[in-house]
Amino acid sequence: MILVLKENVTEQQVSSFAKQFEAQGLVCHVSTGTQTTIMGLVGDTSKIDIDDVRANPLVADVKRVTEPYKAANRKFHPADTVVSFAGVKIGGPYFAVMAGPCSVETETQIIGVAESVKRSGATVLRGGAFKPRTSPYAFQGLHSEGLRLLSLAKAATGLPIVTEIMNPAHLDLFDDVDVIQVGARNMQNFELLKELGHCKKPILLKRGLANTIEEFLMSAEYIMAGGNNQVILCERGIRTYETFTRNTLDLSAVPILKHLSHLPVIVDPSHATGIPWLVEPLSKAAIAAGADGLMIEVHNDPPHALSDGAQSLTPEQFDAVMHSVKRQLEFEGRNMVCTLKN
Ligand code: PEP
Ligand code: MN
Asked: What is the reported pTM?
């Protein structure tokens, strides 16, 4: 971190200011010019609040030269993180496809979809039991009953399950869940993130609707700061002025996140576009951009789905997408590493 101090600072003010940082374990290099004094802070500055520094009356300007996140930063952990659960691996050489309906609706629906996505090569079943809906009058999910139905589908197919949490008070209900999803709307629900930092399960963190890449990584940092390093990042489209698609898939975020962080990055082309026929080309593009996996919405009867039917693929459409996905992975010299047990 580089601090430019105000012109009239005295030597004594500078040295007592430097001591404050040294007390926090940082090395402080002071360079005094004829006009300006510059202070360079070396060490782990991730715990320093840049706004507090800026508010100090001695400071004219301040600039971070290293990122404010440490645990999620590739600089400190050069190797790719591989997240493992129930025989599935994601990250590094491992690619995984998570598929299933937006919402869990009935036992027949979730088991039927689980069986068909498994046949097509998906290795994780998705399905929402707690749904963050824009309207309070829209279907809110089956809650604990939805989690029970997901467990039945897991028992029937062997597919591990990923499902969204909205309230830390519900954590006890998630015992049989393999990966806990934090949805876009909760990406900055810091109390929820802190709670998940203490839990032993992998977390799928979706990028907020209008959040920067740095904010996204800071949210991952919240989880990791609590001791949970099993975080999967998911780019699911951001708000722009474009209205053709539901959101705009920020594909550049994939190589950027992988450059900045060692965490696995997956892409959700269903929520990113809201349009079924865009799922295939954007899945291929995500793989070309270096994604470690995909999350795709699949429903047995999209016109009658209780949420996100318009963007859901039928099992047959999903099967066709999976053929393309496998071809694209081969083209990239990557294999669909299916590590699912049984
Ligand atoms: C979902 O996965 O169904 C969902 C609500 O996603 P997002 O949080 O990305 O909108
Ligand atoms: Mn959805």
From this structure: 0.94
